[in-house]
Sequence to fold (172 residues):
Amino acid sequence: RRLGAVLYGVLRPWPWLVASASTTYVNAELLDPPPATASEPDPPFEAGQNLPFVAPVVVRSDLGVQRELPGVLWGQRTSVTAGLGLSALSRRPLPRSAFADPFALLDASLELRWGPVDVRLETFNLLDTRYAALEYNFVSQWEPSAPSSRVAARHFSAGAPRTLLLSLGVRP
Fold:
């Protein structure tokens, strides 16, 4: 069963400034046990437990500024655009009553337009936050010669590190 809501707003107090924010809430619960598999013939289940891997709260907030610079530079109009974005995920339920850690990421961009030419620098994960993009909690056996275990272990896929993208564009 899924029950949720979204709250979204945009604010433009001046023509050169825009801000937006959204919050998503979801309560996703398992009503029946997950299907059995060969590796998990009796999957763990508690009535009303949250659906694994679904973050109950997701927040996104953006701020953007765009200004035309006064005058002309070598006969061309020049403008600058800058932006900041924040994404945050609450802790996410995992199988076997575990939870993934919450995290927040900050992104930034800067663009300079000079006539038909634009140069854009985008930075994702500006603060180089170390986070698990995906987390799992399952019984695993990575060493064939080791004795089997029925104890679940945490596994994760690392999130992307700080990423810089520089692009150059020319329009007719």
Notes: The chain has no helices and eleven strands. The chain has a mean pLDDT of 90. The two ends are 52 Å apart (CA to CA). The first strand starts at residue 2 and ends at 14.
